[in-house]
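Side project, low priority. Logging it here so it doesn't get lost.
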Amino acid sequence: MDARIVRYGDLRPCKTAFIDAHTPGSNQKENFTIIGGGVSESPDQHVHIRDTPGFNIGAAGQPPKCRNSLHSHRTAEVFFVLKGRWRFFWGRWGNAGEVVLEEGDIFNIPTGIFRGFENIGTDYGMIMAILGGDDAGGGVIWAPQVITDAKDHGLVLGRNGKLYDSKKGQSLPEDVPPMPLLTDEELKQFLEPTTRDVVPEFVARYWDLMALSDRQPAKVIGAEGALKDRPGFEVELLSRNSIPDEFHAHDRHVVLMPMRGHWRLRYDNGPETVLNPGDTALVKPGERHALAPSMTGEASLYRVIETADPAGLTRRLA
């Protein structure tokens, strides 16, 4: 059981995970790869659990005013805010639309748009990420200006998806060309949706979900969810009265991600432990387990369940 739990306090960050790691304004980011290989471009990235249950789990930690540069993925990218206050923005230049998320809010970002995010709170912030597919979509697609700016600060991305840092004496191998910038024709494939296009169908607010989680799990992402999408996994929010404290099992992988409070996880005829906010636990198919808050007070937990939907794809706006 311990081998499939990653504690918040044990998370190992990488500060050079992506091409904007030296770019002013983005150079204080910390990236975490929790379950699966993730999309890091750096060999320095530590992977906590390499098993991939059909999706990847990661996180980003940033101090105030630090931002993640504009990029896109080929598969689903879902964030919920664990700590802090965050602004998400999107579009070719990041000015097509934006939304501010508070702690517990969740954002299922549609594919086919460039997106970025920044910590607009007053303290170090943390967002948890769910990336669709076993290979997390094959990497990151960067807006052209991100690659150009990074080169001015010593980082070059190879066509092989790996970073080379001139500050460490590295350079592109002779047989590896630089990652080409997207052409004008390719850029036309990326959408420019407004805030009104995105927020109603792709953002769910924590306190709305908490209200819906009384006496049953709140369906967040899935065919029956508040966000009706099928990206290769379903997401539910559990609170104190959502499920009985009884042993049960799922026929697919489940990931438990506490948001608030402390949760007791027990295995049938086996060990038990307590999960805390920021912890991540992987439960394998068929494992009988029970889950319940272990203390009084506010308690909430995001539960991610693998589905048979193909390739971790999320909905693309028309």
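Brief comment: The chain has a mean pLDDT of 93.
Revisit when time allows.
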